[in-house]
């Protein structure tokens, strides 16, 4: 396959993954399917694990977080780890969302994460997530739901009724952002619609909707943008792009070294959950792996962690041509110019000179360009799973990511060449025999 054909095939796989992953639960299911088709064997946390050298496994938690790992054929000396997260800022439905107002059935929402709110107006919205139902036979069942057609919208208020709309008007998600679902509808109609959608998608007879975790999303599909297709526009690039990149790199690795990919949930709301980076998911898996193949005991586990490295992958802020003054002049990443090392003196990113030097060397070996990002000294900084994982586990960590525009918007923009660059670098990392710098 030519380089151009390979690049297009990679982009096509990415576009397909993004479109089929409208929620963290869908993203995790799609990652698991991809891993299993490549020979990774599923594990359950409630089972006793019997692990074999040279084999590949994956495990999920809460159906929204995933860890996949390959075991070396020889001794387990270190784990080459890549981390990302499955969640994105969104509008999530309230438990009793139905609102009847002025002849319309609307659905009340909660804002999940640090979402940019204004881009949600005038979008074709679908509904996706996880629902637990009681079947007609009395059994409880959890199902994924993806209503992929435009069933709702949040209309803007006309400029004639708000002359200050373009002057930074604040938005109230409680009173101004309830999507319109149905004209003339009543509260029980939403329960009826949910049952119909589930029965259509899963061919089961639903007696009751017991509980759900659902959110709205933009049904506009991902697309290549630009005269030369140099940009990729899609919802949830932060951080499904890193999830896709991490798994693609893991599947491309030679399988000789201990390697692991983790996709946590709840990063956008602080990571404090059983399946978030502040929770015990990664440590639980690593302890079980070390017990099976590594040096026994607490000392053996600490030795494994300190010989390992975590690359936290989360997208970086590219220099926006219309807002170039928002960047430090010497640290402005560009689209399609390679992965970005993210640095923050206050430890909002976990990078230090040791881990940064190692990643520079990995990119040199992979023959990919590399960039650096630091916020302006007079601006705040977001964070990632990197510092949290480093704090909870003690593992040496670096924060990197591909550059993008419009982070936390309902539709974000990245470069089409950057995913391939980072995949090449992470493949080298997964295959690297030695992680220690003298």
UniProtKB/TrEMBL annotation:
Annotated GO biological process: proteolysis
Cofactor names: Zn(2+)
CDD domains from the UniProt entry: M18_DAP
Highest taxon of the lineage: Bacteria
Record flagged with keyword Hydrolase: yes
Keyword Zinc part of the UniProt annotation: yes
Enzyme Commission number, as recorded: 3.4.11.-
GO cellular component: cytoplasm
Molecular function, one GO term: metallopeptidase activity
InterPro entries: Peptidase_M18, Peptidase_M18_dom2
Keyword list, A-Z: Aminopeptidase, Hydrolase, Metal-binding, Metalloprotease, Protease, Zinc
Broad EC category: hydrolase
Family: Belongs to the peptidase M18 family.
PANTHER family cross-referenced by the UniProt entry: ASPARTYL AMINOPEPTIDASE
Protein name according to UniProt: M18 family aminopeptidase
UniProt organism field: Salinicola socius
